[in-house]
Amino acid sequence: MRLIDTHTHLYQPKFDSDREEAVERCFSEGVDTLLLPNIDLESVPRVLSMMEKWPDSCFGMMGLHPCHVGEGWEVELEEIRKVLDAPPKGKKFIAVGEIGIDLYWETKHIEAQREAFRIQVGWAKERGIPIVIHVRNAWDALFEEMDKLNDDSLTGVFHCFTGGKKEAEKAIEYGGFMLGIGGVSTYKNGGLDVVLPEVSLEHLVLETDSPYLSPVPHRGKRNESSYVVHVARRVAEIKGLSIEEVASVTTGNAEKMFHLVSEIK
Prior knowledge:
By secondary structure, the protein is α/β, with parallel strands linked by helices. Helix content is about 40%, strand content about 15%. Helix 4 (about 110-125) packs parallel to helix 5.
C-alpha cells in the first residue's frame, strides 16, 4: 500500500531534532512521497534542503502563504518568483503553493492577499502547474477570486478542506480541482463525516499539514507525515471502503494532479 502526503511542512524547525527519523517513519508506513508547500522567503532554504536530501521522495512547491502577506509583500513575492524559476539542478517545482486567503487572524491585508493570490495563480498558469489553496474564514472572498480566475488551464487542491457540502460542490465544479483531506477528518466534530460521503473518491487527495492538525489518536501532539495513514483509514471508514482502495485512488489522484510519475522516474 502506497500513500502520498500531498501537504507537509516537514522542513519546519519542529523537526530539526529528528527529521531523518520522521522521514524513515514515513517509509515504514508506505508513505513514499512528500509534497512540501513553501510559506515565505525564510522557509525557501528549508524546502530546497529537503528536495536535495531526498530527491526521489520530496517534491517542493513555491509560493507565499496568505498569513505572510504583510508589509513589503511585493518584494518578498518577487524573490520567491525568482526561486520558482531556478529550482535545484535536475528538479522542478510541482506547484505554486501554498497560496490563498486567510481572514482568521485579521482582515487589514485582505486586498493585498487577493492581489498576491491573483499574481501567483498567474504564475501557475504560465508554467502549467497546479496551485495549492489555503483558505480560512474566507470562502466568499476566495470564491470571488476563483470565479474570475478559473479556466481550463487552472488546476489544484483546496488544501486542508474543512468546508461544508456547499463549499465542496463549488470547489469541485471548477473542474480541475481536488479536496485535500487531513487530520480534521478524524475529529469527532470536524464535520467531514457529513461531507465526504457526498464526494467521490476521485476528487480527493490525502495530506497531514504536519506539524499541525494531528489526526486521532495523536491529536494535540506534533503531526508528522507518517500519520497520513490514519487519515486514509478514517476516509475509508466514512466512505465504507477498504483502506487499500482509498490509498490506491488518492495516490493516483496525487500523481496525476502534480505530474509525479514523470518526476519520480
